[in-house]
Amino acid sequence: MPISWRDHASPQAQTDISGLYSQALTLIRRQLADHRGFSPFAIVTGHSGDHNLRMAPTASTKTAILDALTLDSDTTNSRAILIAIDVSLPPDGTDAAELLIEHADGVALQFIVPYSIGPDGAHLDADRVIAAPGTRRIWTLRL
To answer: In angstroms, rounded to a whole number, what is the distance separating the alpha carbons of residues 63 and 59?
Structure first.
C-alpha cells in the first residue's frame, strides 16, 4: 500500500486498515476463484477488534451499494470499515476491485486493485494497485 497515509494515522488505525485490506484481498481471491467475480461486501471492525462481514443485496449503483453496506450505528459501534466493489476501469474495461476504507481516527482511503481471471485462476495485480485519499462517509468532519 504505497501511499503516505501511515504518516498521519495512529498505530491502531494502521493495524486496522492493513488488516482489513489483507482480509478483503483474501475474500476477493476466493470469490473470484469460485465465481469468476465477486458481490459487493463490507468488513466492519468493532471496538473490541471483532470483524463482521456484510454482503450487499442486489444494487445497481455505487451509492445504493454504499447505502446498503453502511449503518447509522457504524459511527458508534465500530472503529473501521472496508467496502469492496467489483468495477470495470475505463477505457478498456479492465476488471478491478475498488476498496474503500475508513477509520474512526479520520483516515479514509481508496484502493483500486486490478485483477484478471485466466485458465490458471484469478490473479490480483498488486503491481498495478492505485491508492488515493478516500472520502469520509461514516465518520464525517465534525465542526
So the answer is: 9
Give 49-100 pLDDT, tens digit per residue: 999 999 987 777 899 999 999 999 999 999 999 999 999 998 888 999 999 9
CB atoms within 10 A of CB 85: 20
* Residues 108, 5 contacting (CB under 8 angstroms): no
Q: Is 85 in contact with 40 (CB distance < 8 Å)? A: yes
φ/ψ of 23, rounded to 5, equals -60, -40
**Residue 57, preceding peptide bond in cis (omega within 30° of 0):** no
Question: Do 46 and 78 contact (CB within 8 A), yes or no?
Answer: yes
**What pTM did the predictor assign?**
0.91
Domain ranges (residues) in the chain: 5-133
